[in-house]
Amino acid sequence: MKNRFLIIAGPCVLEDLELTLYIANELKELLTKYDFEFVFKASFDKANRTSIFSYRGPGLEKGLAWLYEVKTQIGVPVTTDVHETWQVKPVAEVVDVIQIPAFLCRQTDLIVEAAKTGKVVNIKKGQFVSPWDMKYAVEKAKQFTSQEVWTTERGYTFGYRNLVVDFRGIPIMQRFSDKVIFDATHSVQLPGGGEGKSGGEREFIPYLMRASVAVGVDGIFMEVHPEPEKALCDGANSLPLSWLDPLLSQIRDLREVLKKHGLSSRNSTKSEEN
């Protein structure tokens, strides 16, 4: 991947092809404007929904076909998550980055299978895992690939149905990750807090996003939707497309300030270790 600030964005789950292409195109235009690296993300199957009655997605075959359309028609890299080892091979034939879900970040066989594909692997930090312990998840992948291995911060369980972000985790994971991404939307999720589905506090997304950029994160993960209230998954903590332009402008400006003053958590981490 290019050495520019990375944005991983898209709807939580694939809903239909027309909507998928619309979101991908809107995102591409915005991110080109700000010269950020862009990877489109959407899930073909949400295997960890709270309720058996919740929408999970179009499934592997149709979902990969839609992601292929995004990749070829819109012309952007794509990523999706895998939940079982048998899914890895067909997914790797389409995507540029394989995502390991937070709940599965300790699943050795899944990480190893993803690493063996030769694709970039993005391991989301579990809500139950410390940033220090993500070193071992990265090591599992690094044993089987020369490609980059990323980690994604998405908050830590704080009592029942709540998450809290410890921003120390970003520079800590930068010691052993090729990139550290901040998941600005799942970090405001209220797991299981919506009576059979997860709730969320969307209004706090901009605050946490700005904080992560100030700390020196390598990229932002965000789930976006034109109408989050109508989204079939994670609407409560999804970012409306209409919010995105000013937020990207803020990210750009904050990064310019960091650059001007020579500040970044990667620089700080390296100087501390030396």
TrEMBL record:
GO terms for molecular function: 3-deoxy-8-phosphooctulonate synthase activity. Keywords: Cytoplasm, Lipopolysaccharide biosynthesis, Transferase. It is found in: Cytoplasm. One of its GO terms (biological process) is keto-3-deoxy-D-manno-octulosonic acid biosynthetic process. Its EC number is 2.5.1.55. GO terms for cellular component: cytoplasm. It catalyses: D-arabinose 5-phosphate + phosphoenolpyruvate + H2O = 3-deoxy-alpha-D-manno-2-octulosonate-8-phosphate + phosphate. Residues 3-258 form the DAHP synthetase I/KDSA domain. InterPro entries: Aldolase_TIM, DAHP1/KDSA, KDO8P_synthase. Pathway: Bacterial outer membrane biogenesis; lipopolysaccharide biosynthesis; Carbohydrate biosynthesis; 3-deoxy-D-manno-octulosonate biosynthesis; 3-deoxy-D-manno-octulosonate from D-ribulose 5-phosphate: step 2/3. HAMAP family: KDO8P_synth (MF_00056). NCBIfam families: KDO8P_synth, PRK05198.1. Belongs to the KdsA family. PANTHER family: PHOSPHO-2-DEHYDRO-3-DEOXYHEPTONATE ALDOLASE (PTHR21057). This is 2-dehydro-3-deoxyphosphooctonate aldolase. It comes from Thermodesulfobacterium commune. The lineage of its organism: Bacteria, Pseudomonadati, Thermodesulfobacteriota, Thermodesulfobacteria, Thermodesulfobacteriales. The gene is kdsA.
